[in-house]
Specification:
Enolase-like, domain 1, TIM Barrel, 2 domains, seven-stranded parallel beta sheet, three-stranded antiparallel beta sheet, 13 strands, 31% helix, globular
């Protein structure tokens, strides 16, 4: 273990199409990759990915490569020899750098497993099970969103998540009404994600208007940090409310779950500081009978592969937010594929390594 080598590299991922959110339009994003290798055993490496997002990740910068290198250099070169030692090892990285912690945990899990991208072995990684997913509809004009919806439905998806809050509310209502008129609740599940776009003054009114269309849930209707107002909405809204941004930066899940009591929480491992932290949220939510699902935070296929495998350990899953593998024109190859509303993993398809010309 003492001969291990650490490397870090940046890759700018280019979106196929503009991705509209309430915080603006995304055309590209940076991901930072962490590789652990050993010259005496070059067959196996550990890969991790950090992809901090503007307006969400506390460690975000236009170029965070130097910060990521510093974070990695804080780690002892004496790597953990088993999984129980991972949490103390990554504790050298501050909690306010969650995507860096996620990338480090991901890389050491990969390195310890020596399975070429098998982070969490399960029936999913054995290609004996798949994971249901929702289709993601980006914000834009009504016509643009309608076109996306038609394409997702043609792909066989039966659960769609619509980003709302970027166009006028009446147009969004008309769009949702047209979807529901064409597809009943039994045929199509509609999730909404406001990304905190509603003001506290208008949120209750908008939720009441949206409730007429059989909405499964709405993520983060108001901005995070307003626990009293969010708790009131959760207790009054006919649409079940899911917390997303509200979870970022919190050390103790019980603090927010006991105050707000949401119907759902949305778990992004790179926002929560890794898989160990995500498991703490799951356990605390289960104890309180709060449902959850896991989503990517727009990682490349490297990060998405690990997040999907983590998710694939669980059974009786509702649709998860893992259908982001086709977002980028210059994504990395992996064993993931999607069809008919499910994500699959094929271990025979070798994962592309951003540090090498050839796959590993």
């Amino acid at each position: 273990m003492s001969k291990s080598e650490f490397k870090v590299v940046k890759r700018t991922l280019q979106f196929h199409v503009e991705a509209g959110t309430s915080r603006g339009i995304l055309t590209q994003k940076n991901s930072y990759f962490f590789q652990i290798s050993n010259p005496d055993n070059v067959k196996f490496v550990g890969l991790g990915e950090a992809g901090p997002l503007f307006g969400l990740s506390p460690e975000y910068k236009t170029d965070a490569l130097d910060d990521f290198k510093k974070a990695v250099n804080r780690l002892s070169k004496d790597l953990p020899i088993n999984k129980s030692e991972i949490e103390p090892w990554i504790s050298a990285i501050p909690f306010d750098q969650p995507s860096f912690r996620f990338a480090s945990e991901m890389a050491i899990l990969d390195y310890l497993n020596q399975g070429n991208g098998i982070y969490f072995p399960s029936e999913f990684t054995d290609n004996h099970a798949s994971i249901p997913i929702n289709g993601l509809i980006w914000m834009g004009s009504k016509e643009y969103m309608q076109k996306q919806i038609e394409l997702k439905l043609a792909e066989g998806l039966t659960c769609l998540k619509l980003k709302i809050g970027a166009i006028d509310f009446d147009s969004e209502i008309n769009l949702i009404r047209s979807i529901r008129e064409a597809h009943s609740e039994n045929e199509l599940t509609i999730r909404l994600d406001a990304n905190g776009a509603f003001s506290t003054q208008e949120a209750a009114y908008k939720l009441e208007k949206l409730s007429k269309f059989g909405i499964h849930s709405i993520e983060q209707p108001i901005k995070s940090g307003q626990w009293t107002e969010m708790a009131h909405l959760c207790s009054q809204s006919e649409i079940p409310i899911a917390l997303d941004e509200e979870l970022i930066g919190l050390h103790n899940p019980a603090d927010v779950l006991d105050v707000i009591r949401p119907a759902y929480i949305i778990l992004k491992p790179s926002f929560l500081g890794g898989f160990g932290s995500t498991m703490q949220w799951i356990n605390q939510a289960n104890d309180r009978k709060i449902a959850w699902w896991i989503t990517s935070a727009l990682e490349s296929n490297i990060g998405l592969q690990a997040i999907s495998q983590f998710t694939g350990q669980f059974t009786r899953l509702i649709p998860q937010g893992l259908g982001t593998g086709l977002l980028y024109a210059n994504n990395l190859n992996s064993g993931l594929s999607t069809r008919q509303g499910n994500i699959y993993f094929d271990s025979k398809i070798r994962r592309e390594n951003p540090f090498q010309d050839l796959s590993l």
